[in-house]
Amino acid sequence: MADSKEYEINFFTPKSPFAKDNTKLIAWIVIIWALAIFGFHFLMKAIEKRTPEPAYVTYESVWENVKSNTATDIEKKDLAKVYLTLLGKYIELRDNVVLKKALTLTIYDILPEYQKPGFIETTRQVVSDKNVNLDNVIEVLDFSDDNKFSKLLVNVVPYGLVPFDGTPLDKESMDMIPNLMEKYLVHFQSGLTDTKFLGFPFHYFYTSVLLLIIFCGLCWYYCVVIDKVMDKHGMEKSEV
Asked: In which region does residue 69 sit, left (phi positive, over 0), alpha (psi from -120 to 50) or beta (all else)?
């Protein structure tokens, strides 16, 4: 073993000229790769704008009146449709008792007095029978705009009701509603998310496709440059 060669390789403290050039090349490639990944996300964060959905704008315009019990029936109908929109778009919210009770209470408030006792009984039945007759509820919500979205909301109604006894929401539940609206109906968008590239949002195409291309390009660049570095230091490829 006396004639064996010992090599001490340390990326962070290169000793030979070749090792120093190789370390510098790898460091630059890592920096470029990090900028390609994290720099893009920082850029997205820096230029994003708060963008509420139309449903949020509707909620925001009526919520103060609802809290102060001065909302008109039309405003309550609009708010009920916002609740239904949330329940229809996000399946996980169908387990949210606060949201469902808020919807049930809102519908109860806009029903004629003579229909309210029957509605309370209906909310108890709908738990076990989603096919219970809700024609009076659908009629009072006024889905007269005969479009596909309204028809979808009609189908959500049975899943948005909870057994109801006529009592209003407590303060804690009322305070939870704005948080739900902010979380699910407000998004942060920018030109990077709204611009389409080859049919995809640009940020999606960049992270799923372009980053892979950049990675392969950096690997190719390293292979080309390291050959030149080896030639520079008079090294045969077979020796490495």
From this structure: left
Q: Judge contact between 165 and 120, C-beta under 8 A.
A: yes
Q: Answer whether 0.85 is exceeded by the pTM.
A: no
For residue 106, how many other CB atoms are within 10 A of its CB? 24
Structure tokens at 86: 């949330």
Q: How far is CA 69 from CA 13, 78, 80, 126, in A?
A: 72, 15, 15, 27
Q: Give residue-wise pLDDT tens across range 206-237.
A: 999 999 999 999 999 999 998 888 888 777 65
CA distance linking residue 157 with residue 136, whole number of Å: 12
Q: Which alpha helices (DSSP H) does 48-197 contain, by range?
A: 54-67, 73-89, 97-110, 116-125, 135-141, 148-156, 171-185, 191-194
Selection from 211, 208, 194 nearest residue 37 by Cα? 211
